[in-house]
């Protein structure tokens, strides 16, 4: 889909950003801060269940021990399709609050 179409769908996947890499490939990106490394892996397990059910698979990154970052795009078309937005919405629907760092996941509530 075009960047314009993707932008129109963005309100349906709150928390996700529309990003474009150096090659111009559009992707959906979202990051979370988890409590521990192991909880990051648990987060991935939850995402994997959704991905397998959808037959659509995100790129999963666990960076700096507690940053979960996910990119969703469709490799076969080198960009975004409706399936990417469906997967992002389903990831948003996961009950993962107990895995997230309370202090760092919500910057708006930070004192510093
Ligand atoms: C045959 C199978 O459906 C394809 O290989 C799927 C699997 N999951 C996939 N996931 C994503 N994100 N992009 C793809 O192009 C893709 N292709």
UniProtKB/TrEMBL annotation:
It is an enzyme of class 4 (lyase). It comes from the Eukaryota. Keywords: Lyase. InterPro entries: PCD_sf, Pterin_deHydtase. SUPFAM superfamilies: PCD-like. Pfam families: Pterin_4a. It catalyses: (4aS,6R)-4a-hydroxy-L-erythro-5,6,7,8-tetrahydrobiopterin = (6R)-L-erythro-6,7-dihydrobiopterin + H2O. The keyword Ligase does not apply. One of its GO terms (biological process) is tetrahydrobiopterin biosynthetic process. GO terms for cellular component: mitochondrion. GO terms for molecular function: 4-alpha-hydroxytetrahydrobiopterin dehydratase activity. Its EC number is 4.2.1.96. PANTHER family: PTERIN-4-ALPHA-CARBINOLAMINE DEHYDRATASE. Belongs to the pterin-4-alpha-carbinolamine dehydratase family. This is 4a-hydroxytetrahydrobiopterin dehydratase.
